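Take a look at this chain, tokens included, and explain the fold to me:
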Amino acid sequence: MKLVTLNIQHGGGNRISAILEYLQSQNADVIVLTEFRANRNAKILRSHLFKLGFLYFAAASINPKENSVCIFSRQAFVPRTYSSLPVQDRHRLISAHFDSLAIYGVYFPQKKAKASLFQFLSTGKHQPFESAHFITGDFNTGNHFQDEEGRTFHCSENFKQLSESGLIDSWRSRNQNIKEFSWYSSHGNGFRIDHIFSNPEADNVIQDIYYDHATRESKTSDHSALIVESVR
């Protein structure tokens, strides 16, 4: 299975053709898009990806002006949304449940508003049906001095607690002493804010995990894509 996660920046804007060209080039099995908006671009995405074999789709929000998260898949899945989340977070989490694997797409808010979604995930309230699961998307945070040059992240302690809850920061576990950034500020400061957390069973089936900076360097998005290839 190949999983591609990409923040498409405010629904894609006039970059939608470039986004689709990139996604088509990846030949993925599952795609998680953050900053997805259920607007005209969403219809273009769904139509084009459907023709490429992505017959299954679920989004956390139908609000055309709301940055949200969605999942496209070639394989059938059972979608799940989360009414138990605080109202302000419900458009920020969607999950796809396959026979032996669950994939959670997340799009975290800014600053201290991130805390409630971190708490929800850390306490296991998402209650996956399957033993193996990934949580992937734009977390808008990371580890101080490791996923950024300094100490500016809000809720970095919550990010750390997610690892301590039994989940694995799968890219970091394989690149412990490397600084690699998935987003840069207008001042040129780099941050690794796009992540995939896995429980041990899911982490064990990962064959390769890496960032593709082509999306950011070509201005297809302001984020690099995160790609996971696994045996399941």
The chain has seven helices and 14 strands. The two ends are 6 Å apart (CA to CA). Helices lie at 16-26, 40-51, 115-122, 156-164, 170-174, 200-204, 214-217. The chain has a mean pLDDT of 96.
